[in-house]
Specification:
Number of helices: 9
Number of strands: 14
CATH architecture of the domain at 2-165 and 200-223: 3-Layer(aba) Sandwich
Radius of gyration: 19 Å
Largest sheet: 7 strands, parallel
Shape: globular
CATH class of the domain at 2-165 and 200-223: Alpha Beta
């Protein structure tokens, strides 16, 4: 299968390229600044995804069997600082890819987020539940979901994913990388006990994405995540313990005014239709390369 992959230098795109290449697929990876390090790429192509005419021309030349969109302004803070760029990459780009994929008959896999929900519930969110994003990032991702499903009504997949664990090419993108980078700089990191998430390994999510590329009988909006619900504080504590860092490197924030945020996913019906299984948090930690402790 010939696959056009955007965001190949990011955490999820990098892992998808590795998983897909192992299965013998041809991967054409698009990047902007950081040249990809994923093994097995058929070609790495530098491209500004704000230039729709260049992307359209490339797609018509390659005529891929599938388009996988991992490109995004993934930081809520960056979206707030540059809303115009966030709109172009997080909304206009997915819409264009949906239009292109419809024209060339390509399978489209678009990645979304748990932050399309506000977390103000005690029940895991189903894919049919009404979103209510509380940030510009979440609003843009929700707009992109709707654009993808509107402009490719026959064969799209929108996959919502949570916080991602794993090793990124830049080594500063995943949950554990961000935490350990902050701790190594000498900061005592403040982390909320009120925010509960359902982290997943990027490699595990990539395996799901590849199954969805190969399974054209599945289309629509799906949820995927790990198998455990954890507070951000517990996630941080377990990462520090795993890498032999002092647990007091993070400080719990317990504000009585802070409303509990539960961003949990119900994984049905997808979990019953594919071979890949959700992982518990310890399995995600065990898969990470151990690094030297802070006081080494």
């Amino acid at each position: 299968m010939k696959i056009l992959l955007t965001g190949v230098s990011g955490l999820l795109g990098h892992n998808f390229a590795l998983v897909a290449a192992k299965r013998g697929h041809q991967i054409y990876g698009l990047y902007h600044r950081r040249k990809p390090t994923s093994r097995g790429l058929s070609q790495a192509i530098k491209m500004d995804l704000q230039a729709p005419e260049h992307l359209t021309q490339l797609c018509l030349e390659l005529w891929p069997d599938a388009i996988v969109n991992c490109a995004a302004i993934s930081s809520p803070e960056q979206c707030e600082q540059n809303p115009n760029l966030a709109e172009k990459i997080n909304v206009a780009l997915p819409q264009l890819l949906a239009q292109i994929s419809t024209h060339i008959g390509a399978r489209l896999i678009h990645i979304s987020t748990d932050l399309v929900f506000d977390g103000l519930t005690d029940q895991p969110y189903r894919s049919t539940d009404l979103p209510n994003p509380s940030s510009l990032y979440g609003q843009c991702k929700l707009m992109a979901e709707r654009a993808v499903l509107e402009h490719n009504p026959e064969d799209p997949v929108v996959l919502r994913v949570p916080l991602l664990m794993g090793k990124s090419p830049s080594e500063v993108r995943s949950v554990h990388e961000k935490l350990l980078t902050a701790v190594q700089s000498g900061k005592r990191v403040k982390i909320s006990r009120s925010e509960w998430r359902q982290p997943a390994a990027a490699e595990n999510v990539a395996a799901v994405m590849l199954e969805l590329c190969e399974r054209r009988d599945l289309h629509g909006l799906f949820h995927w995540a790990g198998s455990e619900h954890l507070s951000r504080y517990e996630i941080a504590q377990r990462i520090l313990e795993h890498f032999n860092y002092p647990l007091d490197a993070v400080e719990a924030v317990d504000s009585p005014e802070e409303e509990k945020q539960n961003l949990f996913f119900n994984l049905e019906p997808l979990v019953n239709k594919i071979k890949t299984r959700p992982q518990n948090f310890q399995s995600q930690l065990d898969a990470l390369t151990r690094i030297q402790p802070l006081n080494a």
